[in-house]
Amino acid sequence: MRWQTDPLLVVDHLTMRFGGLTAVNNLSFSVGRKDITALIGPNGAGKTTVFNCVTGFYKPTEGRLALARSGIATSQEVAALTATGKRHAQSAGADLYLLERMPGHEIAREARVARTFQNIRLFSGMTVLENLIVAQHNALMAASGYTVLGLIGAPSFVRRQREAVEVAKSWLERIHLTDRADDPAGELPYGAQRRLEIARAMCIDPVLLCLDEPAAGLNPRESGDLNELLRSIRDEGKTSLFLIEHDMSVVMQISDHVIVLDYGTKIADGDPKSVREDPKVIAAYLGVSDEEELEKVEAELSK
Amino acid sequence: MDYFLQQLISGLTLGSLYGLIAIGYTMVFGIIGMVNFAHGDVFMLSAFIAMIIYLILTQLLGVSSLPVVALTALIGSMIVTSAWNWSIERLAYRPLRGSFRLAPLISAIGMSITLSNFVQVVQGPRNKPISSLFTTNIVIHQGADFPVTVAYNQIIIVVGTALLLLAFWYLVQKTSLGRAQRACEQDPKMAALLGIDVDRTISITFIIGAALAAVAGSLYVMKYGVVTFSDGFIPGVKAFTAAVLGGIGSLPGAVLGGLIIGLIETFWAGYFSADYKDVAAFSILAVTLIFLPSGLLGRPEVEKV
Known about the structure:
In chain A, helix 10 (220-236) links the parallel strand 8 (208-212) and strand 9 (240-244). Chain A is an alpha/beta fold. The radius of gyration of chain A is 21 Å and the shape is globular. In chain A, the strands form two sheets. Chain A has a six-stranded mixed beta sheet, with helices on both faces. Chain A has helices at 2-5, 47-54, 75-84, 104-111, 128-134, 137-143, 148-152, 155-174, 190-202, 220-236, 248-254, 272-276, 279-286, 290-301, and strands at 7-18, 21-32, 36-40, 62-71, 88-90, 94-98, 113-115, 208-212, 240-244, 257-262, 265-270. Chain A folds into two domains: 2-112 and 206-301, P-loop containing nucleotide triphosphate hydrolases (Rossmann fold); 122-204, no CATH class. Chain B has one domain (13-230). Chain B is globular and about 65 Å long. In chain B, a hairpin with a 4-residue loop joins strand 2 (137-142) and strand 3. The A-B interface holds A 55-57, 103-109, 114-115, 117, 121, 123-126, 130, 133-135, 137-138, 140-141, 144, 146-147, 150-151, 161, 200-201, 204 and B 167, 170-171, 175-177, 179-180, 182-183, 186-187, 189-198.
């Protein structure tokens, strides 16, 4: 139960309202370090909204998202940081960030959370290689002395630039796109674009990688390759994975921890096996028959 | 033929100035999809700043070396104008980001009027003359009626523009900052999720645009030796026309457009009527918008779904 003993991300009482609509309601869960955590649920359950809150796309209406980039944060440390109004605390035990207080680019740069999208969002006009280098922007920007050293070609910048290209190339090799490095990203086939998006997210050197339906639209072979890639990322131990997935075979095969949402609230949380057998999960996915519903209503009325 | 050559030289000079200003329009449009109508007035402001620095150096401090004075005025104007444009973006455009599409546009028109009126109040409404610099002529061809000449300041303008463009092209294509700019152009939200500070990238774009406009402004004062508060409007609109003609959002397009507008204007004035040269230049805008809406080098706009 790594999500209890060594949590990377602790979400506390997260609520997100859009006008009168409550997309996520009082949701609490943890994501374990070095785990593959899956967030599942029927359409409209609020999965993507949770992702958007974690990555700073939305500001949560209420709630706390505490991420320990390294170490284990005690609840006292989290409470202490919450009370200060700051976004980051470095203690002996942990390097702690409160994501709900940070704008999107800082979540990526400081807390190191990366994400991919359900509808792929590559920079389609840039080349495949550039897509991977642009993700290393902050490191390069610092090395280039905010462009001044870069323009005059200072050796420190040239070295860093070469390193960035090396990182990008090693990823290209891993996702089998080395020979398409200089093609515009938009011209790649769909499956390759998905892999490239994951590689680009990995280029910011994340501690948490959020994947929104990574297997959507992939054929079984591509889907198998993807599982392989995700497992290998997890096994390297630097990046934990948090994914939304509809494909149950992917979820059951690769995840260590499954959280089930329905109508914005959590209905189950545990290892894949226990979740699969949970009657509430089965009901949410298959629907409850009218008779059962009727019985429930009658039971309520006769109270 | 001699007459043609002489007009060509003038046209290229003027076109280079338009091109430098047009880059500012096209870059800002590329990154935030807004036509920065105040950009022409930023150009006018930079010309005043260059003139003030020039006068301080020559009149108050008595610096006599002309290249030193010109270079100091140029660099000083680039720095001060960049600071101005940074503040303009910070005050007038950034608070409106995420508002409806027309809001920053209206704000830009307001900023344009504010700038020209501010300069009118603090500098007075009359033309401010200094003597043109680097006016020595080189005779490149002894024609039958008159010698075809190039002035030093024309050479400085054309060569300076070409060098700046090379540096600028390198900046956008090869450096991390340029990549970040292109990323913000395509998908600012995604760029932010990769750790790129989109607001800062936009600020830097405004700073670069202003620096290039300041080069144009300083060279303008150096060549024509006169500037007034309303001088931002017509060159600004012409540079905008150049950006549209070249394909707004495209950097080489902006320069190409600038050169074409400069040449058309000069030849029209030279062969037909100087009174109607603006009509010729702006007819180009109308014709481009009708027949070539994405410009000469622009990509057709693809709506994201």
